[in-house]
Amino acid sequence: MTQNNYKTQSEKYELVSKQHGGYYRHNFTDYAYLYNLYFPPEDVLTNFKDQIHDIILNYPVAQDALAGLVGKIIGQPAERIVVGNGAAELIKIVSGHISDKLIVPVPSFNEYANAAPSGKVVEFPLEFPSFKLDINKFAAEAIRVKADVAVVVTPNNPTSLLVSKHDLIRLAKKLETNNCMLIIDESFLDFAENPDLISMEQEIEQHQNVTIFKSMSKAYGICGLRLGYMLTANSQFAEAVRNGVHIWNINGFAEEFLRLLPNYKQELIASCKQVRTDRDSLYKKLCAIEGMTAFKPDANFIFCRLPDYAQSAPEITKKLFIEHNMYIKDCAGKTQPDSDRYLRIASRTETENCKLVEALTQVMDLTNRQA
Question: Which residues, listed in sequence order, are joined to residue 125 by a DSSP beta bridge?
């Protein structure tokens, strides 16, 4: 039993809002973290229990064997792959040690900028208020600032908006002549329609200046295992990143998961389809709230702007937690105009999503009446 050092719901909120995980220990409904609730199947966890002695008591395999396991899953040769302790480990290596000048559209996943040394990052504002990425302007700015790494997260976090494969190929070609590596973060791509058709993975051989990052926490629902990978046909870049990881960067449970995963391809596809169904229903419900602007999502979460009558996103987030024990993500910490008017809401089950919309409407109406 976990001993929690809070006596009131307000104190609980203050503690939780400063954490980066461990939410299951605090008994609330998590609409903040972004993962697949329908995967992995229970069989996978049962296998862990059956193998627990061997997994804990023995050294796991190292990078070459891990790359082969991921390669089997995605149909790519091992030499193109580096496996990370979550994508965050690989981001830290590239942003913090390899890149001399990195450019990233904002708002986006903060870690790309946070992991870089001071003065080594250029933030490129997305078009406001659509938050669409203008490929031509982004490429021009990357070339102007002499960036050697450009990052595009697709679908983006927090906007949940996709950048088309056509646009990514155009961008890669524009950057190639200026010796700029394009990192395409596809961590949420499995939740988009027809992910196999829009992923750049099968195009990787044709673009020496493209690298794909993927966190496996999201689609595979394994946040606690800490798994992610990098894919590139650029052997020099792959080697540079590979040299940045230590010999046993992946634990035995994560290794075992990679060995089991090829047996569950159909279950993964079905789980992502269910996520899309729940997400689309949540999107319609949020659109129906008077004054709310919800952006049509390509990932498993919804980006939305609060109605003008509502209090700020941080205030709404706090009230929702205190009064309904539900935790969503405000975007006040993101680099964007009016950031304190935006929320990011992860989709859960249909039943949970209905409860969330009802509670959110109640909290906003309450604050409106009190204004």
Answer: 106
| pLDDT of the residue at 2 | 55
* Residue type present at position 36: N
Question: Does 1 map to a domain?
Answer: no
Encode pLDDT of 230-244 as tens digits.
999 999 999 999 999
CA distances to 87, 153, 361 from 180, in Å: 20, 16, 46
Radius of gyration of the chain (CA): 21
> Whole-angstrom Cα distance, residue 234 to residue 311?
49
Closest CA to 194 of 273, 257, 290: 273
The per-residue pLDDT for 367 is 55
- Distance of CA 247 to CAs 63, 88, 275, Å? 7, 17, 36
The three-state DSSP-derived secondary structure of 147-209 is CCEEEEECCCCCCCCCCCHHHHHHHHHHHHCCCCEEEEECCCHHHCCCHHHHCCHHHHHHCCC
pLDDT for position 130: 97
Residues 223, 151 share a domain: yes
pLDDT at 1: 43
Same domain? 59 vs 142:
yes
Sheet strand arrangement including 329-330: 293-294, 301-305, 342-346, 329-330
Tell me the C-alpha distance between 281 and 75, whole Å.
33
Tokens at 268, concatenated? 């993964």
Domain boundary among 263, 278, 307: 263
Of the residues 263, 288, 313, which one is the last residue of a structural domain?
263
What local confidence, expressed as pLDDT, does residue 83 receive?
98
Q: Are residues 134 and 35 in the same domain?
A: no
52 CB contacts (<8 Å, ≥6 apart)? Answer: none
Q: Which residues of the chain have pLDDT under 50?
A: 1
Residue 232 and residue 215: Cα distance in Å, rounded? 15
Cross-strand pairs, 121 = 102
Alpha carbons 331 and 313: distance in angstroms, whole number: 7
Q: Is the peptide bond before 155 cis (omega within 30 degrees of 0)?
A: yes
